[in-house]
Structure formats: structure tokens, C-alpha cells
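Q: What would this complex look like in 3D?
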Amino acid sequence: MPQLFRSVSGGLINRSELLRFTFDGKDYTGYEGDTLASALLANGVRLVGRSFKYHRPRGILTAGVEEPNALVELRSGGRQEPNTRATVVELYDGLDANSQNRWPSLKFDFLSINQYAGPFLSAGFYYKTFMWPPSFWEPVYERIIRRAAGLGFAAESNDPDHYEKANAHCDLLVIGAGPTGLQAALTAARAGARVLIADDGSRFGGALLDERVTIDGKDGAAWVDAAIAELESYAHVRMFPRTTVFGRYDAGTYGLLERIGDHLAEPAPYTARQCLWRVFAKRSILATGAIERPIVFGDNDRPGVMLAGAARTYANRYGVQAGKKVVVCGNNDDIARTVADLGAAGATIAAVVDTRATGGAEDLGRPIYRNSVVRRALGGQYVQGVEIGEVGGGISTEKIDCDAVVMTGGWSPNIYVATHLGQKPSYDEKIVGFTMPSDLGEMTIAGAANGIYDTAGCLAAGAAVATSALDAMGMSGAKGDTALDVDEGPSGQIEPFFYVKDATGKCFVDFQNDVTDKDLKLAIQEGYDSAEHAKRYTTFGMATDQGKTGSLNGAAILADALGSSIADVGVTTARPPYTPVSFGAWAGHAVGEEFQPTRRTPMHDWHEENGAVFVEAGLWYRPAYYREPGETTWQESSDREVLATRGSVGLSDVSTLGKIDVQGPDAGAFLNKLYVNGWTKLAVGKARYGLMLREDGFVMDDGTTSRLDEDHYLMTTTTANAGPVMAHMDYCHQILWPELDVQFVSVTEQWAQMAIAGPNARKTLQGVVDDFDLSNEAFPFMGAANLTILGGMPARLFRISFSGELAYELAVPADLGIAAWKGIMAAGAPYNITPYGLEALGAMRIEKGHPAGPELDGRTTADDLGMGRMHSKIKDFIGKTLAERPALKETNRPQLVGIRPVDASERVSAGAHLLPPGAEQVIANDQGWISSASHSPTLESWIGIGFLKNGRDRIGERLLAVDFVREREYQVEIVSPHMVDPKGEKLHG
Amino acid sequence: MRIDCPHCGLRSNEEFTIKGEVPKARPDAEAGQDAYVDYVYIDKNTRGRNVEHWHHSGGCRAWLVVERNTITHEIYSVIDVQEAQ
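A: Here is my prediction, written as C-alpha cells for the whole assembly.
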């Protein structure tokens, strides 16, 4: 298909590199250097999408990131990407794009009927129309609305590409590489400052690539090439094209998105698609230019209605005509250069419509209508003419045929990134736009972003702000350039004009969100009488657009409706990101298995080789159970492991428990502060169970601590609390009791630890220890000792038990873990030693009524757990005073109990609530809950432990367990939590 | 946000954990419940300049006293708690 709207020559495109692409399945061609938008326009494609709410036909309004209309779906499969702006999508060979929000096709869209249902879909229609009945909201209304008022569709399969994250530091961050930014970067670079300059375009240059301008006799693009070449020559300058500075954060921190592979069909091998940069800058210069404003008139969204600056960009940079017969309208001096540039690109100017009575270029050689406005664009799927009339005249006086309307309402400084820290822009009547105050901390705004619109002024501003930034950093060097000689069309003179007051047709203010002048007036009428309220009511300035093209026009309409001024109405808050940042970039490498770090115990490989099925416990991978041939469910495996352990001997990896080595003359005194119970009288060679509270009196953690020497203790914590307990100890020592002479360090990863449990535990262990008396008399329950095993391997042995069996925990240096484990497996072989995982460990601790994570949930007291008597009366400890509060001592508090189902085949479920049988199932009748549940092969029944009001006095009572999540109810009997070997005969044996 | 740890230098905020504003001194064991309720629960909840405890949990593990603006995250001073006592 020929490119009928491509001019015969000119532009910064490479006409020798023809690229093929498809749009909605149809084949087209463009050139290297095109965007998708310029290539579509070159091919005469104007209808590129349907609008958000009314499904109106939409075309291309802009040539940059502010594009509200031309949102397309790119690529397919895992690389499908919705809502990309065709104006910034770089064309590549084979690009595949589709229009959005239309069905069945772009040209015939069923829901375009919405535009005729105008009053029904006006602002706030969600709230008014879809209120009743409330039960219809989620299943009916929301689904219909989501389907009708949506944009593109996200990919449904995994993204095959990868994304990076990186940090960078610099003296000066220059945001935007137009004339201001380049001149600022050159000035700072020449003085030796570390400069980082970023621009969201594929090529540095900004407006110098879009406008016809000469600097020092060179055309704009050539001057840019020379500037880039000079910047490239400095080792201390980093240049980031295709990179958006999307957010400004505290203390000179900026978020940047670098699009490394978006302009390619697929990223190059071993490179990321995008990189999310965090840049720390001493100073920054915001040189982001300005965004042109549309004029609000009737049906100003017809495809073919375009901003004047965009039309010039398409003509000058891409050699593309916005139309063959163009009406130029506006309120400022840009009219003249628009007429000249479009004329030079081969278009006929049908008419010039200027809101100003005088001023501007007089001799344009075209019919010129002064004091006049375009009142309405005519046509359907593309513009075919305009109605014009006098400013404020109220009627149309003439029709003019055309195939494009280009408009300029003036420029709004692009200050979005500067506002991210909460400073408010203020209205500047001189430039007819909002600007930011000069004091912005480390940031300075310059050039068009500061309301300076001529190239000479921008170049001078860039040099000046860079010089001030160098001064502020105490750097000096070559000061600003001598003034450059610039030749370009006139600019600057403007008369405020925002919207046609009594236009016919729909007059769009916010194109992306389909918000019209009438919607804003309605919001005021209904009492939403501030810019921020009107925004919420109408969706004006929301979503990815953030009011880029519409904010000032909207403020003007609101100001008139309120009888107020633009300055008083202000603009709504724009929040980061400036343009959308993909989830992939935010996630970086943290996806799938790499979502978080993985911790493996020293015996991990053995578990893996022996059928372990792992479960994640925080960052740790722990064996849940070991699947033997023929076993099909976790319960079969777990039951076998429990019975084998209780029947003979089992071996379990408990290396994940937190271990903290505590040493020093005051080690015991320090432990006294941390735990409710006492430590100074613990004999060397003994272990003790300890309970730790928070200062508010609730239980924080528990574990056993052993005294290995006079001044040397070894603490253990639960797996989950190892980190928090260590931080708590740092706090207690550094802030509360710095006078205590104690040192401690986490040794969790330095020691492999394993539990040997069951009636044959001692006999098994006998096979590995070197000359150590394991008899009950020599090494009784709660003994702790240093010893050697397997012919000289250093080890620590603790006679402690979580399973309730005769049990030991053996610790060896981590790198010896596998050797020790294998040694024990060999020594236990005659007793059919069985490795057991977390499921079996859980079943056995529930059988014994030992609390763990679900019981230590931050809401339980020591007394709730049946351990109130552990509180020392004679020493101070964390939590002592507040644990004595009356509400924490009430007998009606939930207390730890055992739970047995009345029907032994009934499954007990954690999370079920306990209610009196027959009582209404409401919170007022709630008596407690089941916190942990397991199948008990020992008792041949499901069992649980949980909390019941005054539970210790209610043993034998029958209650109804109600599991609201699983929608089950079953009868349970309240029993002692010690359901197996309640007298503890086994562990003392 | 970056914190200038007196031991490690200027480091990124993900290395640190905030505990909250620096409380009054921990009361004596005999001070009674009211004193402890005040110590544990009553915060000034300042909007603006706030003096806080931060832990360099991903670094040297020192507890720090950080004076920070809760609106802007501007940091005015960072010292080790030992120095503050």
C-alpha cells in the first residue's frame, strides 16, 4: 500500500529502510525512524481506537507521551501489551498492533451507541444508575461496566522477557534532552560534573528534531548530533535515551524506566526488555519542555483533529502530512509557523481561524478569520469540515471543507515530575500556564518547562541553571556558552482562550477518560465544587493520562462555572509515575523462584535425594514429609513417620530454628531481662525452656536455652522469629541495658541441628557418640553437653523433646551436617530409623499440646498457654508490669485446650470457631477457636488444639465447631491439650 | 530515602528497619502500670520533625537515633544510640 500522506522528501527518517507492519491485521509499510503513529498517518490511517466510555472513533491527537487517544495493543501471546501510545511506539519490521475497546471491529463498534445515550452516561452515572439492588453490583453491573468501559487486554501467559533493576549516582541529573537539557548537560559536563541525562525519546533533541530551527547556522538536528558527540566524549557523562524519569522522591532520589528492548520485536539475547533505575542525584534540572493544549470545541475528538505542534512534528521530523487540506486554528503565534511548516510539507491550508482580533503574522497568504473560533468539527469516522463563528458569537456563520484540523491553545509547562513531592503549581497569567515555585530543593526547572518557549531562551536557560547548579555543588569551570545565534519562527504572543462556550456536539476536555465540558459543569452543579472533587466525580485527569493535555482547560471551565479564577481553582494533584511503568519492571528479577531468597539447610540435598516434599517456612525450605513408594497422600506419609518415631526412632532436620550464641559475664543477667523465667541459677550443662514477652505483656517467642559454660549460653528461637528476636536483643542491649557486659551473635546458619526421637533414640545415638555416657543418670532430661561424635567430629548434644518422646537434639558445624545425619541414619538402621518432616513434627507436637506459631500469634499471654506460673516474681523482665493488667488476668480469657471430634472420623480444621450447640452463630456467642489441627495416627483420630474462654475449667464439655471458610460444622469435645503421654513418662525415660 | 549510618556511611533505606519514635526512658520495674502504659502506647505521632529509632538490620546492626521529617522524609541527623545516651 502506498504511503499517500508521506511528503516526497525531508524528515529524519531513513527512506532506504522500508519496514513492514500490521494494524488490525492489515499490512502497511513505514520507514526506519517512524513511530507507529507517524507510519499510520503516512498510510492515511486516522481511525486508530475507540474511546473509553462512549466508544467514539478516535485518531491521533499528539506526537508524544501525552497522547490520550491512540492507545493500541502491541504484539501477542506473552508479549502482548495493552494501552501503548502509538505516538511513542517506535516502528520495527514485523510490528503487530491492534486497536482496542471495539467489538466486533474498529469501524463498526457495537457499543458506539453509547455516545447517543449521552445523558444516561454522564458524569457520576455509575453512582446513580447502578446502585440498586446492591447485590447486583459485583456479579452483574461491575462485569458489564468492565467489559464496556475498558481499554486493552493484558497478556494471559507469562512474560518471556526479563527485567532489570539498577542504581546510579550522579552530581547532576538532567531530565529531558531538548535544547535546554542538552545545553545544561554540556555546561555541567565541561566543568567536570558527573552528569546523567535522560530523555524518553528514541533520540536526544526534543523540539529541535520537531521544529524548523537553525542554531549557529546548523539545522537543529545537526546541532543536536554535535552536542551528543561532545557528551559522548566525556567519561563522566551517562546518556539514557528511551528513558523516562517517571517519579521524583525524597532527597534527590528519582525513578527512571529505561526501555532497552521495547523498540525491537524481541529484546536482544541476554538483555533485559526494561530496566528500572533508581538514581541518586545531588542536583537535578527539569527540562521536560511543554505540552500543547487542545481547544475545547464541539466534536473536537474527531480523527483528523490534531494539535498544531504534533502536525509540525509529523511534517518536519517524519515527512508526514496530517491532512491534504488543513484548517489551522488557535490563539497564539504558533499559527504562523504551523502554516509555514505544513505548507512546506505539501498541504493546502484551507483557512486560518485565530481567536485574536489582532496580532500574529498578518500575511499568511491564506483566508484568515480573526476573532473567530472553530465551533464544531464535522464528519463521522474522520473530520470532513468545520463550522466556524465569532468568538462569543453563539452561532456558526460558515462551513469550511477540510480533512484535518490542527489547533493550538498554547503550551503548558511539563512540570509533573516536579510536583511529586507535594508542592503545588501556581497559575502564571503571563504565560497562560501553571508553573512551579523556584525553590524546589535540589531541583531547578528550566526552559519550556519554566514557560520559556523560544529556542534561544531555552539554550540560555540551560546554560544558566547548569552554572548555578555547579556553584551550589562547589564546582566551577567553563561558564556558560557565549550566546548562540538562533533562527526560527515567531513564538510567545498568546491570548488566553480555552473553550467555546456554547458549542454544539460533545466538547472533550479529557479525551482519555471521555470527560466533556458538560460533565465538569454537572459536577459543580451537584456540589463537587473543587478541582479535586470534580476529578473524583468525573474521572477528569485520572488514570494514565493524569491531565496532561486537559488540566488547564478543565480548570478554566471549572473556574467559570464557580465564578472563580483559574488561579483559585488550581490543578489536581498529579502522582507518579509520570507515564505507566510495567509490573515487570517493578518486579525485576523477583519473580517465580527468585521472588525472595531461598534458604536451604545443610542436609537439603539428602532430603531431596530421599523423597522429601518441601514446604516453604519463611525463606526456608523444609521437608514436609518423605514420600515412600506407594504413598499417595501427605497424610499416609506423615502417619507412617509418626508411628515409626513413636514406635522406634525418627530423625528430623531442625536446623532452621534460630540459634543465638550469648556470652559474657552478664549473659545470664541479660537473659533474665528477656525471658519471664530465671537463668542465672541454671547449672552449666543444663537446658531450660524459656518464654519471652513483648513489653505489652503478650508472648513474643519461646525456645530452649542451654548453659554451655559459666559465661556462655546458647539460645534457640522459633524459625519464624529468629530475625525479630535478634533485633529485639540488639534493642534491649544497646538501648535499655547498655551497662550489661554481654555479646551475642546469630549462629543459625553455622550449625546443622537434628532431632533424634523415639524409644530407641538413646540406642541409636550410642552408635555415633565418642566415649560419652548417655545413661539417664549421667545425661538426664534437659542435659546439654559438648562432645565429639563419629570419631572426633565436634558436636553439641541437648536432651530436649518437642515430640514428647525420649529425644535428643544434636548440633554439628554446618558443613558436617550431612556426615552427621548419615552417621545417625546408619546407627539407627537396626531400629528402622525413619526421617520425619514438618507434618509429622506438627502432628506430634499437637498430640503433646505444645504451642507453636499458630498459638504464639501475638494475642496470647503466658497464662493463656497454661504457663502463667513461669513468671518470675523476683526479677524485672520485659513485659512484666503490663502482663499484670486486669484484662490479661481475667479467668474468662481464651485458654489453651485440646480438641477431639465426637465422631473420630470427623476432620478437625484450624480456623473453626467454637460455639455452644444450638446457639445462634454470631460473634456474641463465639467461645473460642481451633488454632492447630492434625491427624493423629497415635490416637487414630483427628485432633486439634485451640483457645476457649475459661477453657481449663471446661474439660469434657461438648461444643459445636463451625468452620465458616470451609462451610462445615462438627461436634467436638474439650480435652486437656496433653493428649498423648500426659505425665511425660516417655521423655524422662 | 537514604540514611547516613555513623558506622557504615550513606546507605539505602531497605537496609534499615524503623521501630518508631524514641519513647521515654523505660520505667523502673516498680513504676506501675500507668507509667508502662505511657511508655508503651502513648506516641506523639508527630507530623513533621520526629526523632525515631531505626535499626541498621541489614548492616552493622546498630540502633540509631534518626531525626526525620515525617512529611518529606528529610533527615536532619543520624547518631548511634550509645552516643545519644
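A: To summarize the key features: Chain B has one domain: 2-84. Chain B is about 15% helix and 40% strand.
Q: Very helpful, thank you.
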